[in-house]
Amino acid sequence: MSLYHEAAKVLDGSKSGKTSIKSLVYTKKDWKSDPKALFALSTEAAKWSEVLSEVIERSGVLRIERQLTPTLALILTHDLFLSKRGIALPATHGLNSSISKHKARLSAELTKARLRRGFATLDAFRAFINNGSVTVGDVSDQPRPKLRPRWVRINTLKTTLDEQLASTFAAYQKVTSLDKVMLSPASNKVYCVDEHIPNLVAIPSSTDITTSKAYRTGQLILQDKASCFPAYLLSPKAGEGDVMDACAAPGNKTTHVAAVLGESMKSEAVGDSSSKVFACEKDVARSETLEKMVELAGASDVVTIKAKQDFTKLPPTARAFANITALLLDPSCSGSGIVGRDESSSITVHLPSKTADFDTPTSRGKKRKRAAPTSAPNHASTTTTIDDVAEEQAPLDATEETADKLAARLANLSAFQLRLLQHAMAFPAARRVAYSTCSIHAEENEHVVVAALRSSIAQEQGWRVMKRTEQVEGMRTWNLRGKVDAVQAAARMEIVDGETVDAVINETEVAEACIRCDKNGEDGTMGFFVVGFVRDEDGNTIRKSNGGLQQPEVDDSDDEGEAWEGFDE
Fold first, then answer.
1. Which of 280, 438, 514, 517 is catalytic?
2. Strand (E) positions, 365-460?
3. Which tens digit of pLDDT belongs to each residue from 357-411?
4. Which of 53, 400, 495, 560 could cysteine-pair with 352, CB 3.0–4.6 Å?
5. Domain boundaries, the chain
């Protein structure tokens, strides 16, 4: 079967650390295997590789089955013991039999590896591996790890929280703290209603909700808690104007902001509202994904999709957008805050050695001495050979080059993000903007915020940050705020977009207005950043630098294509 051979190629290709497993799988178009299955197997085998390499080395399988490569042995051993369906090959297949005939010895070594690390059950061991550690230690040193929860947004366009708690989650036990979800055993069905975001539920990461009817019909949407912050912070009100989602695909934030509009209709009893959500996506394939997501979520009546449309090419003064009062901006970013986008990017792939000096089935009568750790050729705590270490450690100049490349990439991204934000501020009727990234870097976050505030368009049109005291309750009470030192560093810059500026920034106020989420933190979110901007003046006026006001000019044409030339590329 091609799956195992192709997974071996992926792991071998990722061994250098220069290319991630996800890139190797999804950039190549001629795999015979299903890419999703190939990615899942490769990633899981990589996570277990340190343990399984130890198991294979100690069993001596590679000395007997010389036709097996270390990578194939690793992947097959993974499926033999850790896949629910076992090895996806007939029992008579050569690859299957080459590893299955040694099942007893491999099983014994896996048990020893588990016990050496202080875990009484394979489930407990699996949970710890998924948490990113295989360190040897006593049971007393190995508390149950906290695992990120799976966040489920109740799509109020189709259902309600109460309906879902009474149906989909009827067999679940309600707990009062997120910790109880994150520490829950894999077999437990529990849920916690989130305290910050309305209609959001946390369940254990091991719980598969995707088989439920509610998920398949779009009543439930899997969306990280942090990803729900922008739409909730923006909190557009039905009847007060339209919303623009500038970078909409895949559509979670789009359908969320549509649901927020729907909720405001119910709470304010405004009845049928003409408020719309315009969703822009310039990429063709992602536009198709957006359309499917909007349809599944039941948001088609609220959302108008601008497929294959670059937001920066839209003329803000076009009559079609004269009623845009709120904008959602979640632009392309480094993605440095995302957990699980490609877990393999931070996983070192360990491969078993064919020449490891452990007991093998052929060395009968010879007992391996329990040498002191300093003289043993291999240690239980690691299976990395000298060659592995030499290959994985980059030379100093290569590391510096990587840092330089990262700095250059962040500079390019932040420049684009700033242009996007300034473009949003140019919409004449706009009163609110929510800007967010899934980045942990200040260059894409606080630095962009400060640069936007000091830009001429923000100064002329009265834009400022949405103060913490002005934010909706769930965001106002969120504990993690922006970094003051990052705001201060950006505020010290004297030139923005090639122009000298003298705008005064209240650094503490700006930092407090910014909202951050820790990657793999105690709150169970990915790394994220969001901030709101508001206009002091009425949305239908533009402030001149001399303090006077004038009505904005509106373009009567509906041209939404290449006409806008407000910013240089």
1. 438
2. 432-437
3. 555 444 444 444 433 333 333 323 333 222 222 222 333 333 334 688 889 999 9
4. 53
5. 2-142, 150-222, 229-337+399-550
